[in-house]
Amino acid sequence: MKDLSTLFPVTEEYTYLNTASCGLLSTSLVAWRNQHDTNLMNGGSMFRDLHKMHIAEIRESVAQFFHTKASNVALVPNFSFGMNVLLDGLSKGKKVLLLKGDYPSVNWPFENRDFDVCYAQIDANLEANIAEAVAQHKPDILALSIVQYISGIKVDLTFLKDLKQQYPQLTIIGDGTQFLGTSDFNFEESAFDIVGASAYKWMLSGYGCGLFMIKEEVQGRIVPSSIGYNSADADFNKRYDIEFVGHLEPGHQDTLNYGSLGESIRFLNALGKHNIQAHLDHLTQRARIAFQEMGLLSHTVSERKNHSTIFNLNGDTSLFNRMKNEGIIASLRGDGLRVSFHIYNTENDLETLLDVLRT
């Protein structure tokens, strides 16, 4: 991976290991955003008249990036918004399997509604726990984060495909907020029926934009009640002929924020999804080996074969403050310190972190 520090100025001043909290904006994206608002300022409604074509282009770029159809893609302000709209369209009383301690925006929308909820544990045997819970409880829905926000544990996607083959009627919903943008993810070939994500982390798109992908075969089983003029493509005659994703897009679409997603996808495509994945695999594998040798990882993580770009290290506020004093940006999460790596991180960043941890 080429040196990207000039495109991400924060990395020239800090060792930024906090994408799991907030992905960075590139100088090229900020330049595009400034030009967007300049065009809006100078053109007003004449500029806004172009928004439908722009939104269609963004949706198509999302679909191509994740290997699905544009008709399966909804552009939403964030994961939580899209999740709540979809759940309001599900029949009450369905049995739902969640992971105990998963991200609140995954679990709370189910727990706050009339669903029959059961749980599987997050530990070194995550996949076995899910399989056992599915066999025991026979849920209608499995909902989980693809990557856990505290520990960085990543569910085995091959396991989920096998699970889906065994239980084809099981609807699998994934939160990809801590995952999408780290690899070449093929939605249509995955086990997931629905994947949603906020795009301000690994997709490097800033706040106020997210996406949901919903396979055609499950769209008929969900009846969202959300509706607005934009749902009908601003056409009175289409009020009773609204496409599924229109229910997730009831109002005016934000061409600045969703446009930022489109520009970020253009940038990630230029780098190459396989190059991104290879860079992150190499960097995180080196990090994992070093962290394990230093005894900084939990047994849960150490015992698993594969991991994500997120690590939770044994440490306290004192270590966190020492890292901050050395210009290392991370987060206190759970019982430890969370660090995370993305395309703008280098082996020098890892060595800087290890030097502080060794002291």
Write the layout of secondary structure elements.
Layout: H1 10-13, E1 15-16, H2 27-43, H3 45-48, H4 51-65, E2 73-76, H5 79-87, E3 95-99, H6 104-111, E4 116-120, H7 126-137, E5 141-145, H8 157-166, E6 171-175, E7 194-198, E8 210-214, H9 216-219, H10 255-271, H11 273-293, H12 299-302, E9 310-314, H13 317-325, E10 328-329, E11 331-333, E12 336-340, H14 347-358
Helix pairs in contact: 2-10, 4-10, 5-6
Taking the alpha carbons of the first and last residues, their distance comes to 29 Å
- The CATH first-level class of the largest domain comes to Alpha Beta
Instruction: Tell me the count of domains.
Output: 2
Report the helical percentage: 40-55%
The dominant shape is globular
The overall pLDDT average reads: 94
Give me the CATH architecture of the largest domain, please: 3-Layer(aba) Sandwich
Number of strand segments: 12
Largest sheet: 7 strands, mixed
Quaternary status:
single chain
Outline the low-pLDDT stretches. Answer: none
Compute the CA-based radius of gyration.
21 Å
